[in-house]
Amino acid sequence: MLLSLPNLLTISRIAAIPLLVALVMLRAPWADLAACAVFSAAAITDYFDGKIARDRGITSGFGIMLDPIADKLLVAAALMVLVGFERLDDRALLPAIIIMLREILVSGLREYLATLRVGMPVTKLAKWKTGFQMGALGVLLVGDSAAPLIGLGWLPIGLIGEVMLWVAAILTLLTGWDYLVSGLRHAARADAPPEG
Fold first, then answer.
1. Is position 196 within any domain?
2. 3-state DSSP call for residue 42?
3. pLDDT in the model for residue 35
4. Which domain holds residue 84?
5. Is residue 136 part of a domain?
6. What number of other Cβ atoms are within 10 A of residue 185's Cβ?
7. How far apart are CA 106 and CA 113, in angstroms?
8. What predicted TM-score, i.e. pTM, was given to this entire model?
9. Is residue 104 domain-resident?
10. Distance between terminal CA atoms of the chain?
11. With a cut of 70, which residues of the chain have pLDDT below it?
């Protein structure tokens, strides 16, 4: 099961991170375009690894554990290189922080709830959040420098990416709040004295 196709797709998401970082470090328009392509391919595997695992009935504990970790590593790496190489405007730093903090919050909640043997299902809103987040990061990785290479030099690509990042941050706050409330409810039940 370790080397099943869904698990390989998940692992490929993690393996793409050094290449993504190296391409952004080159600070060249062609490299920005390539970084966007690498990030987009990795992001798409998030959809397919789960779908293939469910359709073929080959889910595994390893895949269930590694999938959210791979997602968070990919998003965190993209946000860090965008901030570290000053590819984000100051006004886009706040949504980047919100997204990073939510990822840490949800990871902590999942870890705690696992001790209670309680799962946190992914909501439709969380899926929309992921879509906007991945789309925003892909657009921001292309940036204004690489836009002319794909015939979009007339579009404010950076601004579009920042607006998408803000939408993702708002959805992040909403889904983070939902998860937090659910986690607190389960924690309160676990702390309640036994009846009788």
1. no
2. helix
3. 97
4. 5-191
5. yes
6. 11
7. 10
8. 0.88
9. yes
10. 45
11. 1-2, 195-196
Please state, in angstroms and rounded to a whole number, the distance separating the CA atoms of residues 165 and 146: 19
What's the structural domain count of the chain?
1
Question: Are 87 and 143 a contacting pair, CB within 8 Å?
Answer: yes
Per-residue pLDDT of 12-30, as tens digits, reads 999 999 999 999 999 999 9
Q: What is the pLDDT of residue 37?
A: 97
Look at residues 74, 65, 94, 93 and name the one whose alpha carbon lies nearest to residue 21.
74
Which residue do the tokens 């993702």 mark?
168
| 97 and 168 Cβ atoms separated by less than 8 Å | no
Q: In this structure, what token pair is assigned to residue 13?
A: 């998401």
Four-CA torsion 43, 171, 165, 85, nearest 10 degrees: -70
State the pLDDT at residue 196: 56
CB 102 within 8 A of CB 171: no
Query: Hey, what are 134's tokens?
Result: 């991945």
Query: Can you state the angle between helices 93-115 and 157-191, rounded to 10 degrees?
Result: 30
CATH number of the CATH domain containing 173: 1.20.120.1760
Residue type, 95: P
Q: At what angle do helices 29-56 and 5-25 cross, to 10 degrees?
A: 170
Q: Is residue 91 part of a domain?
A: yes
